[in-house]
Amino acid sequence: MSEKYLPRIADEKLKLGLATSGAVLIVGPKWCGKTRTAEEISKSVLYMQDPDHAEAYRLLADTKPSKLLEGETPRLIDEWQTAPVLWNAVRFAVDKRRARGHFILTGSVVPPETSDMHTGTGRISRMTMRTMSLFESEESSGAISLEDLFDGKKDMFDENKLSIEQIAFILTRGGWPEAVNEKNEKYALRMVYNYLDAVANQDMSRIDEVERNPDRVYTLLRSIARNISTQAGTATLLKDLISNDESLSDKTINDYVTALKKLYVVEDLPAWSPHLRSKRAIRTTAKRHFIDPSIAAAALRADSGKLLKDFKAFGFLFESLCIRDLRIYADSLDGSVYHYRDQLDNEVDAVIQLKDERWAAVEIKMGAGEIEKAADNLIKFSNNIDTEKMPAPSFLMVLTATEYAFQLKNGVWVVPIGCLRN
Prior knowledge:
It is built from 14 helices and 14 strands.
């Protein structure tokens, strides 16, 4: 491509998917770079939303979808869900050709499932793309690698170059590829506002042809933003919203939240259920998060200046930023991220679980004054894990906005977000 392409962590996962399956489905929010990433490796492209050809493509999909699959491979089919019949067409083509790496499907919306839609198991692999992590936007040095930590590497040290002021700006700008090089905060914020406008006024009603009130969408986004990084349930959101709209109900809120998840705007953090030595009831409610922390900042109309004056709100958004990056890094290692909390309110901000059962616990704290307490909490938590039923943690880490990355004498790692990578 002619313009500069910033490499994505997802690049290698896409290559692996094409090498091991007939097609790869890339899902994620609009504007996160799915199409651009797929274009880098594809040999031919079908843009289903090309206004000059969209109607013709849809008609052809209804009559002879196999024609739309003709072209040099890997063939990218962008926004395939506008013609859901293409799913089965791709699945059938993969079966017929008996070859790998033939198609890349991208989509920003979860399409409605139909009774005749094949699962695609064994033919179509799936991967999620999010916005850019700090390492991808070249704002993290990447000196401390999650993979190295899981492998037990020692003697790592680095200095974080990101100031608190820079982190506040990064939070409001987000990891959107079109915005990462924008130095003017006013312009960067406007880009995110435009994204939310499109979600509220267009996407929420187009996703399944159900009319949804844009004002309610904005109100719900603000409520989720106020409850970011917490386990706020539907009742909490309803209480927050009902003062503005008495006709709201649990059912309506759940419908709107489900639609936001289908658009990959909301991505809650599920709870982790380990084997413990002591008998404690584990709270299973997910934590509220957006796919990118800038969505919360934009919903609250908070610029970096406001965040620097409200460190409580800043702290919740910083946690959301860290969760986003941890998800991106863990995903590349075939891992997932969770949170832990029990009935005694003992909690851990993030637990990274790999497919091979290795895991690590992470506390997220902005300031240096909280590191010692957070490290003690991690050790206390790890000591309560029943290691006869599951492995001990590969590492414990306090993820911070402080100056240096190093390992404490008790073995806990202190790592600024500006030093981390996959």
